[in-house]
Amino acid sequence: MSDRLLVATRKGLFVLHADGKDGWSLGEPDFVGEPVSMAMHDPRDGTLYAALNLGHFGVKLHRRRAGSADWEECAVPVYPPQPADEPQSAAASNGGADALGRPPAPWSLQQIWSLEPGGADEPGVLWAGTIPGGLFRSEDGGDTWTLNRALWDRPERREWAGGGYDAPGIHSVMVDPRDSRHVTVGVSCGGVWQTDDGGATWRITAEGMEADYMPPERRGEANVQDPHRVVQCPANPDVLWTQHHCAIFRSTDGAAHWRRIEAQPSSFGFAVAVHPREPDTAWFVPAVKDQYRVPVDGQFVVTRTRDGGRTFERFSKGLPAAPAYDLVYRHGLDIDDSGTRLAMGSTTGGLWASGDGGESWRLISAHLPPVYCVRFG
Amino acid sequence: MAHIFFAASIQRHVAMPEREIHARTLGEALDAVFAGEPRLRGYILDDQGALRKHLAVFVDGVRVRDREHLSDALGEASRVYVVQALSGG
To answer: What are the helix (H) ranges across chain B?
Structure first.
């Protein structure tokens, strides 16, 4: 069971500790006033990482070593020089536009959108998924970073379109606990990609996903899919869950095929969490649909399936009564390794924790800055 | 000698006192500053070496024109101000 909770917000990083009485103590934030887009605890050496997105001064990464009270700035991923012949606008050539015809983003880091440790057998290895779509790897705990060219240079990458933000980005990175060379990433909007050889080669694995926002003849294309968040069951990594822009999708064969699932009160949302040992159990925080990103009827609920998506339970105990317009972003929901403790934070600054598998929730604060990421560790 | 100043909002992250520099262009002046404080580069320039979108540089009161290659000329006694544009909430 995890007794520490990292909460990355628009105005700083809050590190909470369990108080032993089913509650959490909320202290002073680190990086107060600064947007923190992602936070991570490295289970191999205890280091904490915080990715900042300073509006004027770019993206920064800080780390705090285990046992230290001080944060230190480390390196950020830097995109390589952009070739002079790289298309700069949609009008430049047919190859210059994304799948929706918009001009490509410059080769410059806009945000660290996901940050994950490498495998248990790879101390120091970190993966960073970024906007505008580059996947970076560090082998020295953030001292240096290298863009994965094999994925970046795929012709399909140029077609990736902005989803959550104007430019495309990698929001989910999953390292297979059985084999650290097997890495799966989720792209908005660019489907789900996998490597079996540590990033030397990549294949797209989004068959069965459906992009209702595309013309009918293109809805099934893998590279136009917008998975908002992809998670993998640690005990059974062949089972993956995706909260997609258009529905919930689940795979039981290592993402080779995906099955569409419709849930009540809605299949739209951003966040998904999967139980660490029960691959049929997952949680969601639904909103109306893409045009109305608020809870259905103003009733803020968490849903859970325990049968692989055939049925969903709906929980609201401890959550605010209607009308409530909290929205939980893609990294705003997490579960710890016990499978019973969950936490979530909303864009209106609510933070809740559950100790019973999401059946009831306890408010930690209703007045935080907008929450980008909630993570145990 | 040109004189270069960095706004307090930048110094909140990376300290850089005002200083005099021999430089013919803005790019040369910034390179000289970054040589002494490499960490400052990423705060001022983006990955492709262009001035960050929400920063502005004034040379003798005039906003620089070449944000990409930083080729604006500096005079013998130019005063260079690196400041932040206003954005967000």
So the answer is: 8-11, 26-36, 41-44
